[in-house]
């Protein structure tokens, strides 16, 4: 799935500047992630794109969406071009 399609379907939370609101993998941010329903959490990785749920290997940060993913097997290629 392309990033654009993922963005349109799952509607990630954005900040005041119009960018993804990202949660770090430590401190208060990770406490917020642990309290959030995992069906709304995505892990952005350094090599594998964006994956549904909480992952630890190669993670960069987490994103929360407004639409749940339902723990589906979804891979978002954040470098793929929209067709």
Task: Give structural attributes.
single chain; 83 residues; alpha+beta; four-stranded antiparallel β-sheet; 20% helix
**Assembly level:** single chain
Distance between the termini: 11 Å
Shape label: globular
The topology string of helices and strands comes to HEHEEE
Number of helices: 2
Q: Numbering strands along the chain, what is their spatial order in the largest sheet?
A: 1-4-2-3
The helix fraction, in percent, is: 10-25%
Helix-and-strand structural type:
alpha+beta
Task: Please characterize this protein's 3D structure.
- 20% of the residues lie in helices and 19% in strands.
- The chain is an alpha+beta fold and 83 residues long.
- The N and C termini lie close together (11 Å).
- The mean pLDDT is 88.
- It has two helices and four strands.
- The chain has a four-stranded antiparallel beta sheet with strand order 1-4-2-3.
């Amino acid at each position: 799935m392309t990033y654009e399609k993922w963005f349109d379907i799952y509607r990630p939370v954005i900040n005041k500047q119009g960018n993804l609101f990202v949660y770090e993998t430590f401190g208060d941010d990770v406490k917020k992630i642990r309290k959030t329903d995992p069906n709304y959490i995505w892990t952005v990785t350094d090599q594998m794109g964006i994956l549904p749920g909480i992952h630890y290997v190669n993670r960069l940060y987490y994103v929360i969406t407004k639409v749940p993913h339902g723990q589906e097997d979804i891979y978002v290629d954040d470098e793929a071009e929209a067709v």
